[in-house]
Amino acid sequence: MSVSDTDLIRAWKQVLSLSRLEAGQVVTVLTGADTHPQTLRCALAAAGAMGARVNRLDLPPVNAEKSLSRDALAYLGATPLTGNPAAIAALKASDLVLDLMTLLFSPEQHEILQTGAKILLAIEPPEVLCRLVPTEADRDRVRAASRLIEDAREMRITSAAGTDLRCRLGSFPAICEYGFVDEPGRWDHWPSGFVLTWPDEGESNGRVVLDRGDILLPLKDYVTEPIELTVEKGYVTRIAGGLQADILREYMASYEDPEAYAVSHIGWGLQPRAHWSMLAHYDKEAHIGMDARAFEGNFLWSMGPNNEAGGSRTTACHIDIPMRNCSVALDGRPAVIEGVVQDEPGLARAARRKEAV
């Protein structure tokens, strides 16, 4: 169901307020060929109504001839900012960049953030944005989970389906994604609501068994039969199963990059207003699957780069896999038990309140 401009402007104003936008600050809205027109016009209206000096920077798409998918996260190579110093300068001169195009996993994004500019990515459909407007309670819950990760030296993930994966921690920080940018130099994604980190290089071992109903992104498919992945010294060395395993193997092989198989970020979803079933209701090209990444209690892990966390590994391939019914333990302490988050009841209740729109 479509949403009105009135509701989407109200949602934008809440997110911009949480992001501490002040009158007179410079907001640059970064757009591309696939930017949703309603999201754009409501972002411009909301920022302008709050007294910001608003600019729009529209850039042409890239990578279409290399990617097997139209998904914005399917090929993480060059961006429209690559070799474009004029565009980079405009974004560096901004207090807040509203990324309606997608700069994720790019060196240009890091360069902009280092100036103190904030970047908020928002590319999901307008009705998804309105349903998943972030709150301060979301931030508090995600931050509490990040502190658990910061204090831990091992994450172990198990499931009744057969998953048993151990990942050493400590080299990389815990990352909070709660949907707004309230600090200088911060990047976030609206919508979100999860916590993650990256394991130490070469220190992930075990096996992951994808069960019926787990999700493959950016393929945007529910797993229909078990897929077993063997993890050795930080890399997936074997993908076994039926047709979907064959598709995943061929898709990853198309990048011709051994770094595509490295274990990337690991963490869990904390957003009760996100829904596992969302993919069943949308055309694949209409969204990038943030409900799947954020729904409460999922174990979200990935293969691909770690440069977002300060690592040196870059690859154009990035596979996200949200899994249901997993247990996650940090140094033996349960954080998620069979898909149920084990945080403080007060934090969970606060996050479930629909304070947003």
Describe this structure in words.
The protein is an alpha+beta fold and 357 residues long. The protein folds into 2 domains: 126 residues, Thermophilic metalloprotease-like (3-Layer(aba) Sandwich); 219 residues, no CATH class. Helix content is 24%, strand content 26%. The chain has an 8-stranded antiparallel beta sheet. Strands 2-1-3-4-8 form a 5-stranded parallel beta sheet, with helices on both faces.
How does the major sheet shape up? 8 strands, antiparallel
Q: Detail the poorly predicted runs.
A: none
Mean pLDDT across every amino acid position: 94
Strands of the biggest beta sheet: in what spatial order?
Answer: 14-13-10-6-5-18-19-20
Total strands: 20
Q: Give the % helix.
A: 10-25%
How many discrete domains? 2
Structural class: alpha+beta
| Order of SSEs | HEHEHEHEHHEEEEEEEEEEHEHEEEEEH
Strand content: 25-35%
Number of helices: 9
Dominant shape: globular
Head-to-tail CA distance between termini: 16 Å
- Rg over CA atoms, rounded to whole Å, is 19 Å
Key words describing this protein structure:
globular, 357 residues, eight-stranded antiparallel sheet, 2 domains, Thermophilic metalloprotease-like, alpha+beta, 9 helices, five-stranded parallel sheet
Question: What are the SSEs and their pairings?
Answer:
Elements: H1 5-18, E1 26-31, H2 37-49, E2 53-58, H3 85-92, E3 96-99, H4 107-113, E4 118-121, H5 126-131, H6 136-150, E5 154-159, E6 164-168, E7 175-177, E8 187-189, E9 194-197, E10 204-210, E11 215-216, E12 221-222, E13 227-232, E14 235-241, H7 243-253, E15 263-269, H8 290-294, E16 299-303, E17 319-323, E18 326-330, E19 333-337, E20 340-341, H9 345-352
Parallel strand pairs: 1-2, 1-3, 3-4, 4-8
Antiparallel strand pairs: 5-6, 5-18, 6-10, 7-9, 9-15, 10-13, 11-12, 13-14, 15-16, 16-17, 18-19, 19-20
Helix pairs in contact: 1-2, 3-4, 6-9
